[in-house]
Amino acid sequence: MESRQLASKWLKTEALLSDARAAAHIPATRIYNSSNLHQMLNQYGFVVIKPVVGGGGAGVIKVTKEGATYRHTYMSRTRSFNDFDALMRSLASVKRKRAYLIQRGIQLAAVGGRPIDYRVKVVKKNGKWVFRSMVGRVARKGLFVTNLCKGGSMLTAAQGIGRSLSSGRVRSKKSEMRQLTRMCTSILEGKYPGIGQLGFDYGIDRSGRIWIFEVNTRPQ
To answer: What PANTHER family does the entry give (predicted)?
Structure first.
């Protein structure tokens, strides 16, 4: 049976939000529109907007609000605005006419000042899910997206956790990511039978809390 592809980030997020245990690890996420963006910037001060369909860090934009100043960062270019309408006009030209979602921004633990996140891959073999890999991805200097195709560099998960948090937390954080992966895989498979491989993107914030950023059904 061919592995089922689920391109929409929103559908997969919605499936995980239906379970309180997984939902506790998902940053607040909403469909992109001006009122949602305005509300979330006022609440969190930092959000990430990304295409509902797409991968490799393409089209991901960081948006912040400090005092009366709004900023957006796309790739390595940051622009500032004095009012929300000017921000919205600029975002419209950057993001093109794709459907986007807004996710609360997380201050990630970093390696040498560069944010790091983690990709955990699982595949179904002979009716059982097995772990294929668990790696850390460090953003290229000057970027906030960690994708390897955007110049990010790869570490083992143990190196990443050890260098961004502490070596004493490696075992517990790896174990927690594995538990989360098993739980979320089971939720997604219950909702979408026929999936055969999954790639989970996790972030660990500066206090050590693990966040689920997205799940890919065609992990690269």
So the answer is: BETA-CITRYLGLUTAMATE SYNTHASE B-RELATED, RIBOSOMAL PROTEIN S6 MODIFICATION PROTEIN
